[in-house]
Design goal:
The chain has about 110 residues and is α+β, with helices and mostly antiparallel strands. The protein has a single domain, classed as Alpha-Beta Plaits (2-Layer Sandwich), CATH 3.30.70. The protein is about 30% helix and about 40% strand. It has a five-stranded antiparallel beta sheet. Strand 2 and strand 3 form a beta hairpin. Helix 1 packs antiparallel against helix 2. The protein is elongated and about 55 Å long.
């Protein structure tokens, strides 16, 4: 019988939500930031996945709805601990560059607003 015991387990999960807007509600081509995030996550954690979604939230101007891209990696606890600072720095730069109210960073099913 096959079991999971002898398989590699990546127990941590990290995601960054790349906005599709600048200044909260002006659509942009975010492919530059997607590529940066994919390269960053792949370099730090060994690989990454991108998928598209629609995000909504209540902002200072009311309901905001936009297309977003989620960049996700699975990793070991050590990789997460060793590299979280670099991911937070990327999110802070993304927030500044895109003039966002917040950038969402999800770590092990907990959402952090940067």
């Amino acid at each position: 019988m096959k079991t999971l015991n002898n398989l590699i387990c990546l127990e941590s999960n990290i995601k960054v939500y790349i906005p599709g807007t600048i200044n909260v509600d002006q659509e942009i081509d975010n492919s530059k930031y997607i590529d940066i995030a994919l390269n960053l996550f792949s370099g730090l954690f060994g690989g990454s996945t991108k998928y598209e979604a629609i995000g909504t939230w209540i902002g200072e101007k009311g309901l905001v709805k936009e297309r977003i891209n989620v960049i996700e990696s699975y990793c070991t606890e050590k990789q997460l601990k060793d590299n979280i600072s670099e991911v937070i720095e990327f999110c802070e730069k993304l927030k500044y560059d895109l003039n966002q109210e917040n950038i969402s960073l999800e770590v092990n099913n907990k959402l952090y607003l940067i």
